[in-house]
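Re-running Fructose-1,6-bisphosphatase class 1 to confirm reproducibility after the cluster update. Everything else is unchanged from the original entry.
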Amino acid sequence: MTRPTLQGHLDRWSLADDLRRDVASAVLALAGAGIRISELLAAGPLAGTLAAVRGHHADGDSQKELDVIADDLVREALAAAPVALLGSEEAEEAIALDPAGTLAVAVDPLDGSSNIDTNMSVGTIFSILPYGGPDSLLQPGSAQLAAGFLLYGPQVALVLTVGVGTQIFILERASGEFLLAQERAFVVPETVEYAVNGSNLRHWDGAIRSYVEDCQAGTDGPRGKDFNTRWVASMVADVYRILVRGGVYLYPGDARRGYAQGRLRLVYEANPVAFLIEQAQGAATDGIQPILDLVPSHLHQRVPLVFGSRAEVERIARYHVGSAAMPERSPLFGRRGLLRA
Ligand SMILES: O=P(O)(O)OC[C@H]1O[C@](O)(COP(=O)(O)O)[C@@H](O)[C@@H]1O
Ligand SMILES: [Mg+2]
Ligand SMILES: [Mg+2]
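Result of re-run:
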């Protein structure tokens, strides 16, 4: 019996369609770059000073040695694919590749770079769009042809959507093949797990603060159930967990300088994750609006990001809209404990 591979999955999907075949070759190129990056991460300190700070982005975020190496590996791999334009977290401007290419690709070559030297999971995120000129990377996420990420963890996983559900492939090291592990990932609609960097609580607005406080109040609060917090500080790892067992991830805007629109980038972080999560029946918003509807104004634009279990994402939107949409949070009914007393 033939084993279901990434290559086989893409071959079937792209049969007799030129643009799809181009998408397939870009995905396979990214998978190849991912194997190289995973080898470096597996060697860790034996591969050199991967976590050393090499520089800073225009907005002050540090750039580590492996950020730069991963960017080079992704660019090299995509140079052999029909990609006309490449936008990367690690480069101020998008770069032109193949003038005859049909695709525009946006990448976060290494997501979770604060974790490089901690032996925790990090990843590579990608978004593939049709190329139609120099502004092609500024199409809304709903125009994506494919999106995915590689997760470099105990297993190297490739999570992919080409618009027919979200598939999970695991790298079989011996053969270098990504093998299908899950045909249709499904994000359960309800959850008792939320992921947020709680150290920012004092910088949040009322909606996010109320939501998190209500989760923390557990059985004594309006939610009437206890919650768990999980925060890896590698979004890819949080996405993977949410695909496997549900949950919600929040990186809202906050009052710190430069964080009014949160930390995550629309074009190469929020859009691909939103496509993957929606294809697995979850939801992704900026708090209220679906991420996939937003029209980016520039490559490195930030966006507040909430994604995961659909019912929970919708509940968070109601916290933003106000108490009219949430009778259980009116001053009278604000605390279960009060009602019980
Ligand atoms: O440092 P914080 O505030 O916990 O933020 C962590 C978040 O930022 C990110 O690291 C941003 O991505 P990069 O590592 O690519 O900059 C996410 O992966 C993660 O969820
Ligand atoms: Mg990132
Ligand atoms: Mg990054």
